[in-house]
Amino acid sequence: MKIAFIGLGNMGSGMALNLQRAGHEVVGFDLSEAARQLHAERGIRIADSAQNAAQGAAAIITMLPASQHVEGLLLGHDRQAGLLEHLNAGALLIDSSTIAAATARRVAAAAAAKGIHFLDAPVSGGTAGAAAGTLTFMVGGSSATLERALPLLEAMGKNIFHAGDVGAGQTAKICNNMLLGTLMIGTSEALALGIANGLDPKVLSEIMRRSSGGNWALEVYNPVPGVQENSAATRDYTGGFGTDLMLKDLGLALESAIAARASTPLGALARSLYAAHSLAGHGTQDFSSIIQLLQENAGQV
Ligand code: NAD
């Protein structure tokens, strides 16, 4: 199947490569020249625009930073027509970015008007999961469209959940990321406390991992450099999930909480802490660098 893959960043990179490994004809596009060059070197056919990548594609997958990028690309901006205008009726459009559920519903409605089948299919599992093809997909849309998309999703992921109608995948994703954002702060706080009291972070991490505090951050995403060989922390907080992306997701969670009159006190506090961390210049670093905020504060007290 010919697949257009738009957005070859930290996540899109591994996902596009896995689709190609599964035997699909992948044509990629990214606004960044560096990303285009890197993926051409990795053997992915690169187009010179999103429109050319999507030409004649049976499926189009987008993996972009935020709502405004997805909306701008697909629906258009500054009086420029969006990509939807150039897609054939019957095409399958899968957006795996984490965006507002309302934006996903807007794009789905515009796609449906052109006979294009849309799914919101955000993911969890990090860049390691994207590279290994073990992502979790949280899908919103019709069962029939999901059935059509399954072979593609299975080439990139291990667990595929149907969360409900269009937008439901995004809602599930922000609930998960609100939990992850708070979990990373809690884990960082506990590790910083142990380190400040003279404990070896490797030893403390292993104790908590095997105890009642055990969680995903301690398993595969330790925030202390050097504790895990393949963590973003050990790579100087690069190549993972950016602080600004976590900040965006916690903002989406807060908006959903306000709309539904839900109480999310820890999510709101977590958003403020990542915002302070971003303002201090760490927006593009991996979100696990939030431990530095806690350690810097501890040093000042
Ligand atoms: P990223 O910033 O590394 O990659 C996004 C890419 O999109 C960039 O290369 C950028 O140049 C490109 N882009 C932006 N606008 C474009 C456009 N109009 N046309 C073509 N390319 C465009 O981000 P990422 O870490 O890959 O995350 C992508 C999405 O996945 C985000 O919504 C993020 O919240 C979500 N996500 C990320 C992770 C993670 O661990 N990094 C995990 C789960 C979900």
TrEMBL record:
Domain 6-phosphogluconate dehydrogenase NADP-binding: 2-164
SUPFAM superfamilies, sorted: 6-phosphogluconate dehydrogenase C-terminal domain-like, NAD(P)-binding Rossmann-fold domains
Classification via InterPro entries: 3-OH-isobutyrate_DH-rel_CS (IPR002204), 6-PGluconate_DH-like_C_sf (IPR008927), 6PGD_dom2 (IPR013328), 6PGDH_NADP-bd (IPR006115), HIBADH (IPR011548), HIBADH-like_NADP-bd (IPR029154), HIBADH-related (IPR015815), NAD(P)-bd_dom_sf (IPR036291)
Keyword Flavoprotein assigned: no
Record's keyword terms, sorted: Branched-chain amino acid catabolism, NAD, Oxidoreductase
A GO term, aspect molecular function: NADP binding
Domain 3-hydroxyisobutyrate dehydrogenase-like NAD-binding: residue ranges: 167-294
GO biological process terms held by the UniProt record: L-valine catabolic process
Keyword NAD applies: yes
Biochemical pathway: Amino-acid degradation; L-valine degradation
Active-site feature positions: K173
Entry EC no(s): 1.1.1.31
Reactions the enzyme catalyzes: 3-hydroxy-2-methylpropanoate + NAD(+) = 2-methyl-3-oxopropanoate + NADH + H(+)
Top-level lineage group: Bacteria
Similarity remark: Belongs to the HIBADH-related family.
Protein name: 3-hydroxyisobutyrate dehydrogenase
Organism of this sequence: Corticibacter populi
